[in-house]
């Protein structure tokens, strides 16, 4: 999941594709992206199964990039990112728009609910354990994820600025997950994740400076802003377990403590409590 989604351009292209953009020229117009980077990302997203390249003109041959079922199912992750960046990250050139729910006609914020009992769920209500295919070592991508160069980012850097500090670096994401399950001390992070000490110290500093963690008394504790990333983590995890399933079973098993059953997260509207559909969410500019 991190290898596929750990890149801001990939997330932004996926966002535009879900809004109905399919042609190269329209992606190039809507995003501050160089042609070389756009070509590489579209090629990679097609190879990764997020987009399908389909011909729409024969002479000369031209193609459009249509979201696959795998690509379309990213909408909860993108919605969770949108909400977190809108509420917690001020470093946007323009404030992100509010979300509007076509189902009830209200501006809204998404909330995580349990599919089984429909209760609103926070990180305190869910117990996580390793499944048959899970371990820290197996869940870490072997290679670094794709990142933009400084020159590429210069135009409008940080369209998802702090989300990419989490999704765009394998150690940051793993640190945050470990923090959610109760890890607080440097040596414990190092022992669980197997991260090089220098990389670990660097990522802890970045997450602390961004206000996601608070370093107090030799411990790294999630702040309110850090806990608010729960919808991003849970929707990304569910997407990963759906599309990158291992034959022996899931990597992570989640249980909702209140109702005692396996936890399947659903994003719901905080105004009408109805489960959200991607097609019913629009921005209100």
TrEMBL record:
GO molecular function, a single term: DNA binding
Location of the region described as Disordered in the Swiss-Prot/TrEMBL record: 131-153
Source species, domain of life: Bacteria
Species whose genome carries this gene: Mycobacterium yunnanensis
Gene3D superfamilies in alphabetical order: Winged helix-like DNA-binding domain superfamily/Winged helix DNA-binding domain (1.10.10.10)
Name the UniProt record assigns to this protein: Helix-turn-helix transcriptional regulator
Keyword Iron: no
Keywords: DNA-binding, Transcription, Transcription regulation
SUPFAM superfamilies: Winged helix' DNA-binding domain (SSF46785)
HTH hxlR-type domain location: 1-93, 157-248
InterPro entries per record: HTH_HxlR, WH-like_DNA-bd_sf, WH_DNA-bd_sf
Keyword Iron-sulfur (UniProt): no
